[in-house]
């Protein structure tokens, strides 16, 4: 269990470094992907709602403390909520198909970006226009869709090597 926690923490830190150091130079329509959200969704699809919420809270805390200038807690709410919801929906999704994870990557990227932008607009002193919010949500959703197969493969490989003890089996 400790090895699994350390591996997930290392994966989150690696995704954060890539997201902040590499991807600002490689944007899509002026926006970068949300790699941490991809990791959260991949963990939620593989291990369920509690693991998705826990990893989402950790990823959100990393973003809030190290990247974001918005009030602390907004990313935690967005990432943990999406991880929990995707984990709850896991039994009803065809996660072995090709299209379901890609559609989830797009939908969560768009919903996560829109939710974070809306919360930031409401709670911070930075008003956001609807057009910018829609463009950002669609761009991040598309970029996350392009990177989803890689994120799912990495998380699946690590989860197979370091299984979650006490987790319900995938069916």
Structural features, described:
This protein has 171 residues and is an all-alpha fold. The chain has a single domain, classed as Arp2/3 complex 21 kDa subunit ARPC3. Helix content is 73%, strand content 0%. α1 packs across α3 (49-66). The mean pLDDT is 88.
TL;DR of this structure?
By secondary structure, the protein is an all-alpha fold. It has helices at residues 2-22, 35-47, 49-66, 74-89, 99-123, 130-161.
Relevant terms:
6 helices; mainly alpha; 171 residues
Can you count the beta strands?
0
What's the N-to-C terminus distance? Answer: 22 Å
- Unreliable runs: none
Report strand %.
under 5%
CA radius of gyration is 15 Å
The count of domains is 1
Give the arrangement of secondary structure elements.
Blueprint: H1 2-22, H2 35-47, H3 49-66, H4 74-89, H5 99-123, H6 130-161
């Amino acid at each position: 269990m400790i090895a699994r926690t350390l591996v997930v923490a290392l994966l989150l830190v690696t995704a954060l470094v890539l997201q902040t150091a590499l991807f600002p130079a490689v944007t899509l329509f002026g926006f970068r992907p949300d790699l941490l959200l991809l990791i959260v969704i991949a963990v939620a699809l593989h291990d369920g709602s509690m693991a998705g919420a826990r990893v989402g809270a950790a990823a959100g805390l990393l973003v809030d403390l190290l990247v974001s200038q918005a009030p602390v807690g907004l990313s935690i709410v967005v990432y943990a909520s999406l991880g929990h919801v995707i984990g709850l929906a896991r039994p009803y999704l065809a996660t072995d198909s090709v299209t379901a994870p890609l559609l989830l990557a797009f939908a969560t990227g768009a919903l996560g970006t829109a939710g974070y932008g809306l919360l930031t607009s409401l709670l911070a002193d930075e008003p956001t226009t609807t057009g910018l919010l829609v463009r950002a949500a669609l761009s991040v959703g598309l970029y996350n869709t392009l990177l989803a197969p890689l994120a799912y493969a990495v998380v699946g490989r690590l989860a197979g090597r370091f299984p979650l003890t006490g987790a319900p089996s995938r069916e």
